[in-house]
Amino acid sequence: EPEVTQTPSHQVTQMGQEVILRCVPISNHLYFYWYRQILGQKVEFLVSFYNNEISEKSEIFDDQFSVERPDGSNFTLKIRSTKLEDSAMYFCASSEDILMPASSYNSPLHFGNGTRLTVT
Amino acid sequence: GENVEQHPSTLSVQEGDSAVIKCTYSDSASNYFPWYKQELGKGPQLIIDIRSNVGEKKDQRIAVTLNKTAKHFSLHITETQPEDSAVYFCAASMVFGAGTILRVKS
Asked: Which of A33, A102, A109 sits opposite B31 (nearest CB)?
């Protein structure tokens, strides 16, 4: 079964540094997402992405964050000037159709196994 | 924006018993309600979903019910097994609940 892959599995960085988290979504999926899960807490929506632009973003997704699809397969999350509170698991997901309220085409998210980001 | 509340936060049941997890949502426009299971060290995995034109859906030992008027939906797991132990998340579209840690004691 096709799956979403994320690299690295664990990233350690110093406060103030930039990190790029990488994801390869399922090949025929068109919609891509990043979520964050602080240890033991809920899975929080960050951003959705379609057709090379952001579809929706949460209030967590501020100017510190950016997303990009640099080629036909990768989807990246960049965090500039990392802070201690950015330490979390970051999950990438993809779906066949857009996932949003009132849409007639909602389809399930397929998640990767996450990147554990530790900011020291 | 959408807000999803999930209860209980932890649930312990004896093997073979049933488990019920309940969620409420705030946005009446939401029409897709997936449930995800997260095992240690892995991303959430879809176990069942329901759309707003359906009141109930069942898949073997797992069932989900939806009450759109009251804006709540529930996950029912019957004949629980130790391998059902995990964290379960409800969602309304892409907004997740806080999760329920289910422990099945053998």
From this structure: A102
CA distance A75 to A48: 11
Q: Contact B49/A108, CB-based, under 8 Å?
A: yes
**Chain B from 20 to 59: CB within 8 A of any A CB:** 27, 29-32, 34, 36, 38, 41-46, 49, 51
Q: Which residue type, as a one-letter code, is found at position B59? A: D
**How confident is residue A106, by pLDDT bands cut at 50, 70 and 90?**
confident
A103 falls in which pLDDT band (50, 70, 90)? low
- Determine the Cα–Cα distance for residues A23 and A4; give it in Å rounded to an integer: 7
B71 φ/ψ sector (left φ>0, alpha ψ -120 to 50, else beta): left
Chain centroid to Cα A89, Å, comes to 10
Could you give the CA distance from residue A33 to residue A30 in angstroms, rounded to a whole number? 10
pLDDT-based confidence at B25, cuts 50/70/90?
Answer: very high
Q: What are phi and psi of A100, to 5 degrees?
A: -160, 155
Task: Please confirm whether the linkage preceding B34 is cis (ω < 30° from 0).
Answer: no
3-state secondary structure of A84: helix
Q: Does B10 touch chain A (CB under 8 A)?
A: no
**Chain A CB contacts of B25 below 8 Å:** none
- Going by pLDDT thresholds of 50, 70 and 90, the confidence category of residue A89 is very high
